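Predict the structure of IclR family transcriptional regulator.
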Amino acid sequence: MRSVERILAVFESFSVERSSLSLQEISERIELPKSTTFRIVQSLERAGYLVRLEDQQYCLSFRFTRLAGLVRGTLGIREIARPFMTELAETTKETVSLHTVSGPYRVCIDSISTVTAPLRAVVQAGEQIPLQAGSGSKVLMAYMSKADLTPLLPAATKATKQTKAAFLEELQRVRENGYAVSHGERLMGISAISAPIMGVDGQVHYCLSVGAPTVRMQMHEKNFIKLVVAAAANISRQFGGKNQ
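Done. Here is the predicted structure for IclR family transcriptional regulator.
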């Protein structure tokens, strides 16, 4: 199992920004001795998964393109996220939802609830919520381009009763922390924790959320944050991206 993890670590060391790496750089990124790294890289080169360039750097081969073509074309974010959402809902005993952006709205793609208590957060698939307040909206807005974010700021600052500067600072903290928490921002007495789902292009088009009555959420907030962030990271990896 260790050898498999090491091979995967080599593959994961490449990125859009660094599509070719020297042996030393790979060694540093996977945190293994250069001699060990060389043996792994040499085996992957012989197997056709890595190519050694003229400048002695390595890059991924076109073999990955062929393998990528074997991925089911219909495999979407909902199918990928479902197992992790189900596990998260069963662990937290709260409502778990998946969201994306559609114009000025946050749209719920899927929702799972295992809550048996009468007091619970209700989120339905297909529900559209203005991109203003709430942890899900803030996560999606935090990773938007300036051009897409700017038109949304007046309504968002009004809804959250913040200045533009304060709201942008909060979005920056969301990016740094890798999650957002809200208490009663969108609905009184309801809290939520959301984390971004990274795509293969490094962009965030989706987020994962757990919603619950504030009285219950505050009892488990720290643990729920860890669970949501971990689930979002797992979905990201399956979706081809990699969380912070």
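The chain has a mean pLDDT of 85.
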